[in-house]
Design a protein that fits this description.
One of its GO terms (molecular function) is sequence-specific DNA binding. It is a single chain. It contains 31 helices and 25 strands. By secondary structure, it is α/β, with parallel strands linked by helices. The chain has a 7-stranded mixed sheet, sandwiched between helices. Strands 15-17-18-20-19 form a 5-stranded mixed sheet. The chain has a 5-stranded parallel sheet with strand order 22-21-23-24-25, with helices on both faces. Strand 17 and strand 18 form a beta hairpin. The radius of gyration is 72 Å and the shape is elongated. The chain binds beta-D-fructofuranose.
Length: 927
């Protein structure tokens, strides 16, 4: 079965699927792309046979015509020359649902019934080429078979010139062309009686049948002049048989159809096989055109009879050329049709692809939009999360800040209390220590008693002042400070206070002056409070002004205020110190004392009670100026501030300097048992200690760790006593712990014992002190006897060490420089003892001397050369380790700087006449 498909029908299913997928959206797209199809029709074509060339030509003619109607589907059925089969096929076509039937019946009568049935059902029918016996058709299309018969008869008559014999080979007897051609032929021959049909062969339209009959009737053929066959294939079949028997030259062959192509009738005429043939048009093209008219409701003629003509030697060439052209055109058309079909299919598949692409695009866009939406959603969620995080972080930061502040405040308070106790400890020490000292003595010099009592009284007053300040501070803190202002002469008041510091200024060679623009200045002020402020400012100035400096107090009347300035040319402050100087708990530097920290905070409170201002200007190294601005009149004061105050207690006395000089306070002639260096920043305590220790030791004293360190290097004292908390000159100043560390880490000083003296009694400080290398630790307030005892014990231990390692060379020499040299030399050797590569060369380099200088100096001081001294120290250490420890000899050898135990043994025996193990058992005195 051949099925021709044109247009979009093939992809109907697919487009249906896509259309449903694309739904509404793609309907719009499809509407844009697809043109409205013409009404599609199914044409059934029942062909009696498809085997021969004429029928193939008919089908080609139809195809050509169908190319103009792509909307038509041709359902083609080939009955293969079988009438029975054709009947079945017509029924099948009808059952499949066709819109029109074209039928070319194998035999007229038998097929008529089937065609009638189709036609009666209302299906239009076109009968092609062969007739049916009824009129059940819309149109009959065919060549003029009777006329062809006549034309053939006329031709044969003239060919035989009215005299001759003919063998007629007929088509299928039941088919109308065979009947009509015979009829026309006979009619015509009747006109030429000399021409006779000597035999009629029933070729049934088929070559083989004709050939078969020709074989059988070859005798008859021998007598024939012409063979007239109803079609060209039968003519050829007979010719081939005749040729076989050599009859082909005497017989002329005539056929019907006039087919084109290389094996068609025209070629046979050209080749001289046929003498003539007659065109029998297929009507294929006409049948399709008629079908189109019928299907489109147009009228068609009842019969269409197509013209025929004779083809012989006279016209065959022209006709052949024409038909060849047509044949080629036909091929071209077929090729183009195929191409169009391919293109249509390509177009269709591309369109499908386009649909799929568009669909995919739509899907991608939708998915993309969805993804975008999700991303946006996610971003929004992230943003929200980030905002929440930020908020949480901010809250956390706030909480942290608050807790940091709280921690800081707590730390500051703790530090404040620690300093407060330190501040209380020092005057308490200065009360308790001389008191204990006096009580412990049997005989007391009355002058000493007086000096001690003066010290006790002064420190008791200091305590009183501290307590007083603390109470004021508490009141200020609680907002309960009360101003008791009265109008008084400020100049006289300031003058009094300045005078109180006169003696102190004279002692320290400080130029103290009051410079006033007014001889007298009335001002409303609280005498008690302003006294504290000025006392505090002046104490402060004295504290930081060096000997020979100046402290100028300026008093100046301005428009609505009085200015009081306390200016000094002392140490000055850094910008940072200035910003914190009035802070109550400020401990940024080491300078915090109640004298400034607490005092200045309170002073500002007092001044602000007067609605005044207290400010500071200072420059490091150049001095400080405190400026006090107090408003004139009483309008700025609250009536409650103006109450007359109760009688004032007399002001506390200005602290007197401890009368004695710091150093060199010695009782002439007394035997001093060593040099002590005291590092203490509290002037009175330092002076007191110097005075109390000077009768037993040579005492050197310094107030800062830096100065102390210089003094240590210079003098190499036998013992160092240092306070832990040292104020120093700068914020980065060393404290006692750092000083101890430095002493212990330097080979020149590492052997000097250090006693740490401090008010801080906590365990951590002791641990820190011990870690720094301190030899003893004494808490303030301390008893003098205990301090002395500690000093003695420490010195004795030191002496033992010296004797153990260095002999008593150090003890023997009194010269400080010599002592220093020996001390350094011994400490260095001791330190490097385990280093076997350390010899005299390195020793002299580290001592900063040439080899020769070192030899000479050692020889003079010790009476032996440096190598011997080196050996002596090694031996002493070895002896000590042998007797005092159970360390193996090999280890002792290593610890005393010998490269091998054997060398150690030899060396030891050389010097002691005993092996190390013998010495360990019974140490000989000689050794
Ligand atoms: C082909 C054929 C032709 C002839 C026609 C008549 O089948 O035999 O040769 O002209 O049929 O119907």
């Amino acid at each position: 079965m051949i099925q021709y498909t044109f247009g979009l029908h093939h992809c109907r299913f697919l487009s249906g699927l896509i259309s449903s997928l694309l739904a509404g959206l793609l309907l719009v797209l499809a509407g844009c792309v697809e043109t409205k199809p013409k009404a599609a029709y199914r044409i059934g074509f029942s062909q009696c046979t498809g085997a021969d060339l004429w029928r193939q030509t008919m089908l080609n003619d139809m195809k050509r015509a169908l190319a103009l109607h792509p909307e038509y589907t041709l359902l083609y059925k080939d009955a293969g020359n079988s009438t029975a089969r054709q009947l079945r096929q017509i029924e099948q076509l009808a059952a499949e649902g066709i819109d029109l039937l074209i039928v070319s019946p194998n035999e007229s009568a038998p097929i008529t019934k089937a065609v009638d049935a189709v036609f009666k059902k209302g299906t239009p029918v076109i009968v092609l080429d062969r007739r049916i016996t009824s009129t059940s058709y819309n149109t009959f299309i065919s060549g003029d078979n009777v006329e062809i018969g006549r034309l053939a008869g006329r031709f044969v008559g003239s060919l035989l010139k009215g005299q001759g014999t003919v063998v007629e080979v007929t088509g299928l007897a039941g088919s109308s062309p065979a009947q009509e051609r015979r009829q026309g032929f006979r009619e015509q021959l009747a006109r030429t009686p000399g021409v006779r049909v000597i035999r009629e062969l029933d070729g049934q339209w088929e070559r083989d049948t004709a050939r078969h009959l020709a074989e059988r009737e070859k005798q008859v053929l021998q007598q024939a002049d012409v063979v007239f066959a109803h079609n060209e294939v039968m003519a050829l079949g007979v010719q081939q048989v005749c040729k076989k028997y050599g009859l082909d030259r005497q017989i002329r062959f005539v056929g019907i159809d006039g087919l084109p192509g290389p094996v068609g009738g025209m070629q046979l005429v050209l080749d001289g096989i046929l003498t003539a043939t007659f065109l029998y048009p297929t009507g294929g093209e006409e049948a399709i055109e008629a079908a189109a008219r019928i299907l489109n409701g147009k009228a068609v003629p009842r019969e269409t009879i197509l013209k025929s003509f004779q083809i012989d030697a006279s016209n065959v060439q022209a006709l052949k050329a024409q038909s060849d052209r047509l044949y080629t055109q036909q091929r071209d058309i077929e090729r183009q049709t195929r191409r169009i079909q391919q293109l249509t299919e390509t177009y269709s598949s591309q369109r499908n692809r386009l649909y799929i692409t568009l669909f995919s695009l739509v899907v991608v866009i939708v998915l993309g939009a969805w993804a975008l939406y999700l991303v946006r959603e996610k971003q929004a969620a992230y943003q929200q999360l980030a905002q929440q995080n930020d908020a949480i972080r901010q809250q956390k930061d706030q909480i942290e800040a608050v807790s940091r502040q709280a921690r800081q405040a707590t730390e500051e308070k703790l530090r404040f209390y620690s300093y407060i106790s330190h501040e209380f400890n020092t005057p308490l020490s200065l009360i308790l220590t001389p008191t204990e000292d006096l009580l412990a003595r049997r005989q007391i010099d009355p002058r000493e008693v007086k000096a001690s009592l003066l010290l006790v009284r002064k420190n008791a007053y200091r305590l009183l002042r501290l307590v007083d300040q603390m109470l004021d501070l508490r009141k200020a803190d609680a907002g309960k400070l009360q101003l008791n202002a009265r109008p008084e002469d400020l100049v006289a008041f300031v003058q009094d206070i300045v005078q109180d510091f006169g003696q102190k200024a004279a002692r320290q060679r400080i130029d103290l002056r009051l410079i006033s623009s007014e001889p007298k200045q009335l001002l409303w002020f609280d005498r008690d409070k302003l006294d504290k402020v000025l006392f505090n400012l002046l104490s402060n100035a004295f504290k930081y002004t060096p000997r020979g400096g100046f402290i100028h107090v300026r008093l100046e009347k301005q428009a609505e205020t009085v200015l009081v300035q306390v200016q000094d040319n002392g140490e000055g402050m850094t910008a940072d110190e200035q910003t914190h100087i009035f802070d109550l708990f400020y401990t940024g530097g080491n300078r915090f004392t109640l004298g400034n920290g607490l005092g200045l905070a309170l002073s500002r409170e007092f001044v602000e009670l007067h609605q005044g201002e207290l400010t500071v200007q200072s420059e490091k190294g150049r001095g400080t100026t405190f400026t006090l601005l107090l408003p004139l009149g009483s309008a700025h004061l609250d009536p409650t501030d103006l109450e007359p105050a109760p009688a004032q207690q007399p002001g506390l006395p200005v602290e007197e300097e401890w009368a004695q000089a710091e150093t060199g306070v010695t009782e002439a002639g007394a035997r001093k048992s060593g040099t002590l260096l005291l590092v203490e920043d509290h002037d009175e305590l330092r002076q007191y200690l110097v005075s109390r220790l000077a009768d037993r030791f040579e005492v050197l004293a310094e107030s800062t760790a830096e100065q102390g360190w210089e003094r240590i290097l210079e003098t190499i004292p036998d013992l160092i006593i240092s306070d832990i908390m040292l104020s120093g000159q700068t914020a980065q100043a060393m404290n006692g712990l750092q000083l101890t560390q430095r002493i212990k880490n330097d080979f020149r000083t590492s052997t000097i014992p250090v006693i740490l003296l401090t008010a801080k009694g906590q365990m951590e400080d002791r641990i820190e002190g011990t870690r720094a290398g301190a030899d003893a630790y004494i808490s303030k307030p301390f008893q003098m006897a205990y301090l002395l005892e500690t000093i003695n014990t420490t010195l004795i231990n030191r002496e033992k060490w010296q004797q153990r390692y260095t002999g008593d060379y150090l003890a023997k020499t009194e010269n400080r420089q010599e002592k220093k040299f020996l001390n350094e030399l011994t400490a260095l050797i001791e330190q490097k003892l385990t280093d076997t590569s350390f010899g005299v060369e390195q020793l002299s380099r580290e001592m900063g001397l040439s080899r020769v200088q070192l030899y000479r100096k050692t020889q003079t001081l010790l009476g032996k050369n440096v190598a011997d001294y080196f050996a002596e120290i090694r031996l002493k250490k070895a002896r000590a380790l042998l007797t005092e420890t159970s360390k193996p000899i090999a280890e002792i050898a290593f610890e005393t700087g010998f490269s091998s135990p054997a060398y150690f043994t030899t060396f030891f025996k050389q010097h002691t006449h005993q092996t190390p193990s013998e010495y360990r058992k019974s140490p000989s005195i000689n050794a």
